[in-house]
Write a structure and sequence with these properties.
The longest helix has 25 residues. Strands 1-2-3-4 form a four-stranded antiparallel sheet, with helices on one face. The protein is built from one helix and four strands. The chain is α+β, with helices and mostly antiparallel strands.
């Protein structure tokens, strides 16, 4: 059995001043039972603010087939996405604010 995985990413930019950037990702697996019943979607919105940047992340599962495992899949996707971004924020907070000044 061969499984196919597809990732579709888009980047959108809004505004000239107070710029916003939106990354959207859709990830889909076909050919594996329980993995082929949903599409994982993630959207990252980055906005410039007076104090720096603001980043919002939204993620979820869009179910394309019925499955009794929907609650487990949805919880797992949400939890793993949350953990990835919490780790990213922890890492980013440790970076110097202005590395060129060091």
């Amino acid at each position: 059995m061969v499984a196919n995985a597809t990732t579709k990413q888009t980047l959108q930019r809004y505004g000239d001043y107070g710029m916003q950037i939106c990354f959207s990702t859709q990830f889909e697996i076909e050919g594996i039972s329980m993995a082929d019943c949903f599409v994982m979607e993630e959207r990252i919105l980055i906005e410039s603010t007076e104090g720096g940047i603001l980043m919002n992340v939204a993620a979820g599962s869009n179910f394309t087939k019925k499955t009794i495992y929907k609650p487990i899949i949805a919880t797992t996707v949400k939890g793993s996405t949350k953990k990835i971004w919490e780790d990213f924020v922890d890492y980013a907070r440790k970076l110097p604010v202005h590395p060129e000044e060091e």
